[in-house]
Amino acid sequence: MQQYNVTGMSCAACQNRIEKVVSAIDGVDSVAVSLLTNSMAVEGHVSPEEIIEAVENAGYGASVKGAENSAKTSGFDEDALEDKETPKMKKRLIASIILLIPLMYVSMGHMMWNWPLPAFFDGNHVAMGLVQLLFTVAIMVINQKFFISGFTSLLHKAPNMDTLVALGSAASFIYSVYALFAMTYAQTHGNMDGVMTYMHEFYFESAAMILTLITVGKTLEARSKGKTTDALKSLMKLAPKMATIVRDGIEKEVPIDQVKTGDVFVVRPGESIPVDGVVLEGSSAVDEAALTGESIPVDKEPGDQVSAATMNQSGFLRCTATRVGQDTTLSQIIQMVSDAAATKAPIAKVADKVSGVFVPVVIAIAIATIFIWLLAGQSFGFALARGISVLVISCPCALGLATPVAIMVGNGRGAKQGVLFKTAVSLEETGKVDVVALDKTGTITNGEPKVTDMIATKTCDERELMEIAYALEQKSEHPLARAIVSYAEEHEIISEAAKDFQAVPGNGLSGKMKDTIVAAGNLTFIEKYAKIPDKIRNDAESLAKQGKTPLFFVKDSILCGVIAVADVIKEDSPRAVKELQNMGIRVVMLTGDNQRTADAIGAQVGVDEVIAGVLPDGKESVIRRLSQYGKTAMVGDGINDAPALTRADIGIAIGAGTDVAIDAADVVLMKNSLRDVPAAIRLSRAVLKNIHENLFWAFIYNIIGIPLAAGLWYPIFGWKLNPMFGAAAMSLSSFCVVTNALRLNLVDMYSTKKDRRRNQKNITINQEKEVEEMKKTIQINGMMCPHCEAAVKAALEAIDGVDTAVASHEKNEAVVTLSTDVADEVLKKAVEDKDYEVVSIQ
């Protein structure tokens, strides 16, 4: 994805115009233009020069984002997000108001309420008109951007919001100038009735007030839009500017962009870690709240990883740089947030379609309004005022901003809590999930086995039992052995490694400890060495039912005891599962464990369904089946979860996961907490609700405002809208939409108070039965190469009800997996249509 800065946009019509122009270029796969960030994201194989040329030919400006700062290693420029528009708008607004006050005093204060004027103006109506003309011209010059942008876009046949403002203001001004000349003519010929008539046809104050009020709205809008990128700007500010590196044994402070992979750097207490790295020496507590939202500092020791922008709180750390510049975790987070802002949510398509034709339709309505009122017998001044009101009250900006502002604010809110949505689509769709599939290891559990229970017999106490276990297990490479070794070291158990050590794969260990035979293993293995009492046997059975692995230990043919080891469930997992269920989401656990162990863990966590015995390459097919019952999210953390994360409607990588998992996921959770899953869904729902509110306001505003401005209710109720009030309404509409989106900053992602429960769909998947019943093997003659396999595969997968087809020219067969029953004749015809012979179908 290549991103560009775009200049000259003023409303959704501009955004729509640029998208159409760039989409028409050969080689462009997709384009998304953001009015909020004045940026454009383009995917395809097109040179930046072609893109920029097309945008410029449409009357706008474009440049490659970051090109002016290519020398920066980080690749991100904080200045690019600086609110430069608000100060400019403030200056224009202040100057306009200073000139508008005397204009309004002369035009309305004197004429409507007889406020005093200098004696020079007594009876000199032409002088009063000229003063109004001069003030109006000055205000028009100050706000010339509306006219330049409006009429330029009109010449390019792509009118925008500025066109409406420019036409409305210009029409008021031109008609007022005509009225001034007509009044002057009447005064020179002594026609005082004509003078007074034309005096009341002045719309100079309307022309000036329209521009000033629109500038008020644009200023408020610019200020609010600037706040929507606060989250991204705060992330950028976290990046340290300097680093202390060690070269030739000497500490040297250098700019951050001079740090290279492999450099050794030091971090003292109170300093920010400059780049991602690994601790070489020292220990400390590091505050990672900036990246993960986790307030509790994390202890770091040699071998642990550290991330840029986290704060070293207590000790001295000596580290080696592993990732610098754009590769650091912080830079990747910034990139994700930036990319998400550059993409477009599906719900925005409605507003885009409307905004594409909105301005031309409004201009047509304004012209029709003028002619209809003239035909109805009204004066030209009355008809013109109605037409101008239609032009200036219509607001395509609110339509264009309704979705992107909510996406930007919501994404920033998530980033502060360590919840990253990679695209606007993922932010919108996450809240719609019906099923959440949780990988057990590392997602529901900690992913590391730990000692959970210890049962010592009368012949051994717990310390002696641990000494025997430590002597045997410290020579084993098994994950369960590492759990026992870690436990022993934590409790300062001292024991020499067993001699004559032997490992029987899948069963147990044996050796000698001070000339005494010791052994450890499962029940079957240990029964060869000692008799197991019924009580111990029953206790071990009970532990196994809880999903734990009981390990038996023997010394001199006498049972010493049992140590249970298990992959411990995270503290917050049961609560997270309950929250998901209370939101109307069905929770399914996937695991490669046997059914008994899986059911035990599933019961402890409280999931709705357990699917056990799932091999790593089988997760993808399970997700495919779950997807038939509704929108499915897959939560995982490992490389073997990547295919399932990709297959799911929403893939969620937890605990920052592996690089492969992150690449495959739609949502990345920086913390290792399962509660971030319901939090992400909660935020997505809040954003979607906010977008609906914004779109409702934008549409209803125009639906009510345009008929009122056109004078539709004038014959019935006598209601008519002064163009100045129309401009005020227009200026506030976009401000209201942006302000409403900023409310998302107040959303508590972890509060369950507003959770809305939906009816769960009854989903039950008996995997073994389904795999057995829903597979057919087709014996085929004539396949000679991989191309033949691909042809057969494509033909079979094109049939409704066929999930997958795997063809093999070596075995002369194709195995199809079915979601529903498909007749053999249909399968046979599909293959034979490709000129292959079907021998049999089983």
Report on the architecture of this protein.
- With 842 residues, this protein is of the alpha+beta class.
- It is 49% helix and 20% strand.
- It contains 31 helices and 30 strands.
- The strands form six sheets. A seven-stranded mixed beta sheet has the order 14-26-25-24-15-22-23, with helices on both faces. Strands 6-5-7-13-8-11 form a six-stranded antiparallel beta sheet, with no helix packed on it. The chain has a six-stranded antiparallel beta sheet with strand order 16-21-20-19-18-17, sandwiched between helices.
- A hairpin with a 3-residue loop joins strand 17 and strand 18.
- Helix 12 packs antiparallel against helix 13.
- It is elongated, with a radius of gyration of 36 Å.
- About 2% of the residues have low confidence.
In short:
The chain is of the alpha+beta class. Strands 14-26-25-24-15-22-23 form a seven-stranded mixed sheet, with helices on both faces. A six-stranded antiparallel sheet has the order 6-5-7-13-8-11, with no helix packed on it. A six-stranded antiparallel sheet has the order 16-21-20-19-18-17, with helices on both faces.
Shape: elongated
Mean pLDDT: 82
By oligomeric state, this entry counts as single chain
Report strand %.
15-25%
Low-confidence stretches: 69-76, 766-773
Helix content: 40-55%
Taking Cα atoms only, what radius of gyration do you get, to the nearest Å? 36 Å
Strand order of the largest sheet: 14-26-25-24-15-22-23
Structural class: alpha+beta
Q: Major sheet, described briefly?
A: 7 strands, mixed
How many β-strand runs? 30
